[in-house]
Write a structure and sequence with these properties.
The chain is built from 6 helices and 18 strands. By secondary structure, the chain is α+β, with helices and mostly antiparallel strands. The strands form 4 sheets. Strands 8, 9, 11, 14, 15, 16 and 18 form a 7-stranded antiparallel sheet that branches. The chain has a 5-stranded antiparallel sheet with strand order 7-10-17-12-13. A 3-stranded antiparallel sheet has the order 1-3-2. Helix 4 runs antiparallel to helix 5. The radius of gyration is 25 Å and the shape is globular. The chain starts with 12 loop residues before the first strand and ends with a strand. The relative contact order is 0.12.
């Protein structure tokens, strides 16, 4: 009687994949069986697999400040699918509430993307698309919808959030333990209210951490400056041993979207710092921690000026995964020549 329509229904996207049947007419689920049982995938009347919101909730990684453009019919019939993308960090989602005409979907999305590449916000681009092509396709009709932030803009191609003052890692990407914090024991950021931290796991993972982002260096890029503070359980006790956790900074030239050869521009190991570290007021899972105190690095990157590069800060673990190290990062700057 239609009581499962509206807010109680779920938006789905047909995959185009049709299940085969055995000789008895039963569908051969294969590797999709777990997702079907968990109601992440539905089977259409003709055996076509349809992806439900739970599928995207289960398998999508973070989408920090992304624009999700859904050209599918009824993609924003309700918020069941939209909310999944927003929960993954997407900045805004555009879609259609009914069976939409192909030309209308193409024209409105093209206008939105073109305007955003011209540095307009999603709301400005959306309003222009509606003013140019109408709020619906004049069919059943299908209306275009916008959910999320009205101020979302495309990136400039330059490095962002270098001081971590956004309070999160956007647009940094992370592997292992990489986070933004406001304080470690009594140690505060050198500037502002936040700083980055990468570690060799800090007891709850054995995966060494790194943060990285890709952007274009300015033609006059001269040097990379940053503040750093190395904390470790290996200091003093394991100086001169094979246990040599390290802090490494690399710049990797990116071509066709792929990071190629990497240039280590800064490295510090346990042995290099042992003579100058002092007792810290924090403890990791194995006990006492020493730290280097805040240091300032200023390295020449002029040979990569004007190129597309990936900037990567890493904590590496050498010799064991028991005794942890962590490096605080703050006030990262790309300095240009006059």
């Amino acid at each position: 009687n239609g009581w499962l329509t509206g807010s109680l229904s779920q938006v789905l996207l047909y995959s185009g994949v049709v299940l085969a049947k055995d000789s008895s007419g039963n569908y051969l689920l294969g590797t999709t069986e777990a997702d079907v049982q968990a109601k992440r995938i539905a089977i259409g009347p003709d055996g076509t697999l349809a992806l439900l919101p739970g599928f995207f909730q289960r398998y999508l990684k973070a989408l920090p400040n992304s624009l999700v453009a859904l050209s599918a019919c009824r993609s924003t019939y309700n918020n069941s699918l939209v909310n999944v993308f927003l929960s993954k960090g997407a900045g805004a989602v555009v879609g259609y509430d009914n069976y939409v005409a192909t030309t209308y979907a193409q024209n409105t999305l093209k206008t939105i993307l073109t305007d955003m590449y011209a540095s307009k916000t999603i709301k400005q681009a959306f309003d222009n698309a509606v003013a140019t092509h109408g709020s619906n396709d004049k069919g059943e009709p299908a209306y275009i919808n916008l959910a999320g932030s009205n101020t979302l803009k495309f990136g400039t191609g330059q490095f962002g959030n270098l001081g971590f003052e956004a309070g999160n890692l956007t647009p940094w990407q992370t592997d292992g333990d990489g986070r933004v914090i406001s304080q470690l024991g009594a140690t505060l950021p050198t500037t502002g209210a936040h700083m980055g931290i990468i570690s060799t796991g800090l007891g709850y993972t054995t995966a060494s951490g790194s943060v990285q982002q890709t952007a274009c260096l300015a033609p006059k890029a001269k040097s990379l400056k940053f503040r750093w503070n190395f904390f470790s359980e290996e200091f003093k006790e394991y100086c001169g041993s094979v246990y040599q956790d390290a802090f490494k900074v690399e710049l990797c030239e990116v071509k066709s979207g792929v990071a190629g050869s990497c240039t280590p521009v800064f490295t510090r190991t346990i042995d290099q710092l042992c003579a100058a570290v002092t007792k810290s007021d924090v403890s990791f899972d194995q006990g006492g921690v020493y730290h280097s105190g805040w240091g300032t690095a200023d390295v020449d990157i002029s040979t990569l000026a004007g190129k597309n590069v990936m900037l990567k800060f890493s904590a590496t673990d050498v010799g064991d995964s028991v005794y942890d190290s962590a490096i605080l990062l703050d006030d990262i700057q790309i300095v240009e020549s006059p």
